[in-house]
Every structure is written in structure tokens, then in C-alpha cells.
From TrEMBL:
This is Mandelate racemase/muconate lactonizing enzyme family protein. InterPro entries: Enolase-like_C_sf (IPR036849), Enolase-like_N (IPR029017), Enolase_C-like (IPR029065), Mandelate_racemase_C (IPR013342), Mandelate_racemase_N_dom (IPR013341). Belongs to the mandelate racemase/muconate lactonizing enzyme family. SUPFAM superfamilies: Enolase C-terminal domain-like, Enolase N-terminal domain-like. It comes from the Bacteria. Keywords: Isomerase, Metal-binding. Residues 136-229 form the Mandelate racemase/muconate lactonizing enzyme C-terminal domain. It comes from Solirubrobacter phytolaccae. SMART domains: MR_MLE. GO terms for molecular function: metal ion binding; racemase and epimerase activity.
Length: 327
């Protein structure tokens, strides 16, 4: 028998984040614990963000309750993740189970998680700073602070007003050597608006643009019309092709889901990197270990924890923890 329990963790962001889908000040995640017959345990995290992904906390809790019923009567040799998937194929809930399984496997084998995923895992992951403010002066101040801290890439939320002015101020603040990526979260809506917006922003020099529009076909059309590398994010079709990069999220099925998505994206000719949905420490740790195992070279959006501890970025990278488990 495997016992499943859930508890809630809440934390406040260091500064409010504004994106085209709304403003985020506080975060709530569910910590999923599995207690195994071997006396060991594993903890994961379920982190839906309804304004962003449309998935409610209530629906994730309902799925986890259903998983608990299944796990109580599961045979020792059964595939735990698949048994849960059959009951409710909800990626954000399955991520909590998947992370707990990997956490348990790391503890059981005494192997740091990144090396458990792939023995060739690298020791550090490059990360970007995220700027989600609509005021030009505040955006420039945040970008300058990130550059002083050693970040080599900043991500600026766009589709929230005065995009061109804010991006020009950010470029002036960070200088020519720091990469700037923008994230529209689909706010530009149509291919025509996206291309017009990118043309206006392109003079500042863009590393890439995440999700200018929603939908694989529209993303391909935008990429065909611009030299700016386009990254797919909310449009979860990593094998669709036609874009230059795919942003992977632990909330979409956990480590196992990310590994499958990375294989599909790379097979379609796209680069990959990871980012968080302002996850808690277990979600960020899982993403850091997975990025290290995938040997990601693009900056990842994982510098989002207020109290990061061992996961705090130093000079634009997060060192991969060498202890076992996620926390």
C-alpha cells in the first residue's frame, strides 16, 4: 500500500508580477507526499496557476483524492503513475505524483536526482531574471539590478503596455552583452499583430520571443515571418515543429512529462529550456535537476523563488544540488 497525503504551502512573491493574463502577488502550491512500504517516502508538488493555465486548485485536489483511493489498493509491481493517469489525466496533479516518485527513487538509491535522470548531467544551469512590471523606469531599474547580479539574460513580459519604451529602457540599462527575451503569453492574438509588435521591438535585439500567439499553426506562421526566434510555451505541442525553441514546464506532468516533451521538441528540430510557473521549492528543484540532465544551454526561467536557499542563482546560474531528493 502507498499512502498519499497533501498539504498546502503559500508564499509571497518578492515583487508583484504583471503579465498579460493578470497580476500575481502570492502563490499557493500543494505538497504531495507518498509513503511507501519500504519505509521511505517521497514528496512532490502540484502547482496549478489558474489565470495562466486554466486549471483550478479544486480540480487538482479532486484528482489527488482519487489517486489516494487508487494507491491504497495498488499491487506492489504496478506502474504508479499510469494507475493515477487512468483515474484522472490531469498534468498538474500527475506532476505531484511524478515528482514524489522521483524524490523517492533518489532517496532509495542514494543518487542525486540529476544523475539519476542522466549520469551525464551538468553541474550548473544558466537562468534568466524575469521582469514583469509595466512602468518603464521600474523595468530599467530591475534589469540593471539583474545585470549587476550577473544574469546574462533577462525576460520581459510584454503585452502589458509601452512594450517598445520598456524594452528600449531595459536595453539601455543592461548594455549590449545581456540577452533580452520577451514573453507575450499569447497577448498579441493574431499573426499580423505579432509580426508588427516584433518588428517594433526587434531593434533592441531579442534573444527570442515566447508565445506571441496561441496555437501551433499560428506560431509557425509568426516564425516564418520574422528573424526573431519564436518559442512555444502555453501551446503544448512540443513535436509540432516550425518554431526555434520550446519552453518546458514541470507542471505539465512532472519530470517524466518534461523528458517526453524534450524528446519530441528536439526530434522536431527545436531547442529546449525550462521555466517555472512560480513554483515552490520542490518544483524548482525538479526543474533544475531536469535541465541539468537535459544539458540545457539556454537560460532557464527558474530564478523565481523568494527564499531560494541552495537554489539561489549566483552570477546567472543555479548550481545543481548534489544531495539526494528534491528538498
Amino acid at each position: 500500500m502507498i499512502a498519499l497525503s497533501v498539504r498546502t504551502e503559500r508564499f509571497t512573491l518578492a515583487a508583484p508580477l504583471r503579465a498579460s493574463w493578470g497580476e500575481l502577488r502570492e502563490r499557493e502550491v500543494l505538497v504531495v507526499r507518498l509513503d511507501f512500504p519500504d519505509g521511505l517516502w517521497g514528496e512532490g508538488e502540484a502547482a496549478p496557476l489558474e489565470p495562466y493555465d486554466g486549471v483550478s486548485m479544486a480540480s487538482v485536489r479532486e484528482a489527488l483524492d482519487a489517486y489516494a483511493d487508487v494507491l491504497r489498493g495498488l499491487e506492489p509491481t504496478a506502474d504508479v503513475l499510469e494507475a493515477c493517469r487512468v483515474v484522472s489525466d490531469l498534468p498538474q496533479a500527475l506532476a505531484g505524483i511524478d515528482l514524489a516518485l522521483w524524490d523517492h527513487a533518489s532517496r532509495r538509491t542514494g543518487t542525486p536526482l540529476a544523475r539519476l535522470i542522466d549520469p551525464r548531467a551538468v553541474g550548473a544551469v544558466p537562468v534568466n531574471a524575469t521582469i514583469g512590471v509595466s512602468d518603464r523606469a521600474r523595468a530599467a531599474e530591475a534589469a540593471a539590478a539583474a545585470a549587476r547580479e550577473g544574469f546574462r539574460c533577462v525576460k520581459v513580459k510584454v503585452g502589458i503596455g509601452d512594450d517598445a519604451g520598456r524594452l528600449a529602457a531595459v536595453r539601455a540599462a543592461v548594455g549590449p552583452e545581456v540577452g533580452i527575451r520577451v514573453d507575450a503569453n499569447g497577448a498579441w492574438g493574431t499573426v499580423e499583430v505579432a509580426l508588427e509588435s516584433l518588428a517594433a521591438l526587434e531593434p533592441v535585439g531579442l534573444e527570442l520571443c515566447e508565445e506571441p500567439v496561441h496555437g501551433a499553426e499560428l506560431l509557425r506562421a509568426v516564425q516564418a515571418g520574422t528573424k526573431v526566434p519564436i518559442a512555444m510555451d502555453e501551446t503544448h505541442a512540443p513535436g509540432a515543429g516550425g518554431v526555434r525553441a520550446v519552453c518546458l514546464k514541470i507542471t505539465r506532468g512532472g519530470i517524466t512529462g518534461v523528458l517526453a516533451d524534450a524528446r519530441a521538441a528536439r526530434a522536431a528540430g527545436a531547442d529546449v529550456y525550462l521555466a517555472s510557473t512560480f513554483d515552490g521549492p520542490r518544483g524548482i528543484a525538479a526543474a533544475v535537476h531536469t535541465a541539468a540532465a537535459l544539458r540545457v544551454t539556454r537560460s532557464c526561467g527558474l530564478a523565481t523563488l523568494t527564499a531560494a536557499g541552495a537554489l539561489a542563482p549566483q552570477a546567472g546560474v543555479i548550481q545543481v544540488p548534489q544531495s539526494v531528493g528534491l528538498a
